[in-house]
Amino acid sequence: MKAMTATTSVRKTQLERSLETREKIVQAAIKMMGLHGYAGFRVADVSDAAGVSRGAQTHHFPSKAALTIAVVDTLFDAAAESSRQRIANITPNDDVIQAMIEDASAFFLGKDFTMGLDLLAAAERDPELREGVRATAKRTRTLVEDMWIGLLLSRGLIREDAEDVLWLIFSAIRGLSVRMLWQFDEHRFERLKKTTYWAAHALYEEKKRESVSKKIRNTNKEN
Description:
The structure is a single chain. The protein is mainly α. It has two domains: 1-62, Arc Repressor Mutant, subunit A; 63-222, Tetracycline Repressor, domain 2. It has helices at residues 2-36, 43-50, 54-60, 64-88, 96-108, 111-123, 127-154, 159-179, 186-222. It starts with a helix and ends with a helix.
């Protein structure tokens, strides 16, 4: 029994060390990619930056695409968790439209989204990277959108209307952020962000009224 316990303990320590090494490599890759972009990203530089052997790096990430996908997974998962926390902290009296715009701005104006665009462009030339990046983006952003839609449903909207509100906000902020890559105009961005707020808020209030009216009509029919 003691021998079995000791073996289990050793295996757990080895697993912890393996996970720590993997995390060091990913964090080093994130730093290097942030500094040099994907075009200047050299896998050979990562192991030195992480303080691990090249063999250890290859063990965890046998290809540049595999390491890059792990970077995307880490960044987008962290962004999704930030959104989850923001949504969890919203109270019934909070302005859900403003919260959605703040969440969209935090992601689409952040360095992680810019890095993601860089990777998506590079991924077109690498099938493994393309599928991995797209899968991660779809998984994490769908999760975030579903959480916001769930909140809008709890506020009285039907799913189709909730999706329309979300599409309006996220598409507008995403489009503005991409525009800012080549035409940086912070004042105009803030002005159009306010315009997006009022348009989305008007749509939200209209759909809530329609939902209430529909429920009243259905109740009257049943009676």
